[in-house]
Design a protein that fits this description.
Elements lengths: L2 H21 L6 E3 L9 E6 L4 H6 L3 H7 L5 E6 L8 H17 L2 H14 L7 H10 L4 H7 L3 H19 L8 E4 L3 E3 L9 H13 L2
Parallel strand pairs: 2-3
Antiparallel strand pairs: 1-5, 2-4, 4-5
Helix pairs in contact: 4-5, 4-6, 4-8, 5-6
Length: 211
């Protein structure tokens, strides 16, 4: 490539990046909710199986995963502040999702549980109900029994709950779905371009992953 073309390309890319960075402002499209980032880069969704908007967002999670740099993971935390049932049941769902992730059936399990609660209008009242959904999603019932109250599963669920509570105490996490980049940058979806919402969302995620 000729030097002049390299210069033109560099200026074009630099201008494009500067324009994107200028569009996104702290306190507007995103909020800083922690001093330090997570040890490993991540995009985390705070959601609930009782939330219709969260169910709708499931169709776009593959697009988010596709734009994540190598080594960056898409994580999901099930919240416990929805009014549809008790905190204990919601925490039970958080544990069940972790078990499903370990079994490699989390996407099928999520689809099945969304349908169970929102389409079938059925109720989750105990671990046996979650076990049935887990098995119907292709999971092994014995694994579920051994894992649902396993120390590592409970510890992970409690750690996620502690972070959720801290964000809620700051009045940063007030609704779902909410996405947080690297544990530090919470996306304010209401400030995004309503005419190009998902593309704006993905561009903001890419921008925050580089901060």
């Amino acid at each position: 490539m000729k030097p002049i073309l390299k210069l033109v390309l560099f200026i074009t890319l630099a201008f494009s990046w500067a324009s994107t960075a200028f569009e996104y402002q702290e306190g507007k499209q995103y909020t800083v909710v922690a001093e330090k980032k997570t040890n490993k880069p991540e995009l985390r969704e705070y959601f609930s199986f009782y939330c219709p908007a969260c169910r709708g967002f499931e169709a776009y999670l593959g697009d988010f995963e596709a734009l994540l740099p190598t080594g960056t993971s898409l994580e999901k935390t099930h919240v416990d502040f929805m009014g549809h049932t008790s905190k204990e049941i919601q925490f039970m769902m958080a544990k069940a999702l972790i078990v499903a992730q370990k079994a490699g059936i989390d996407k099928k399990f999520s689809q099945a549980l969304f349908k169970y609660l929102q389409t079938d209008r059925a109720k989750i009242e105990n671990e046996d109900d979650l076990r049935n959904v887990f098995v119907l999603s292709g999971g092994d019932g014995d694994m579920f029994d051994k894992s649902i109250n396993n120390f590592s599963v409970v510890t992970q669920a409690k750690r996620n709950q502690k972070i959720q509570n801290a964000l809620s105490a700051k009045r940063a996490l007030k609704s779902v779905p909410t996405f947080v980049v690297n544990g530090k940058y919470l996306i304010n979806s209401k400030a995004l371009d309503k005419n190009n919402f998902m593309e704006d969302y993905k561009n903001l995620v890419k921008y925050l992953l580089t901060k």
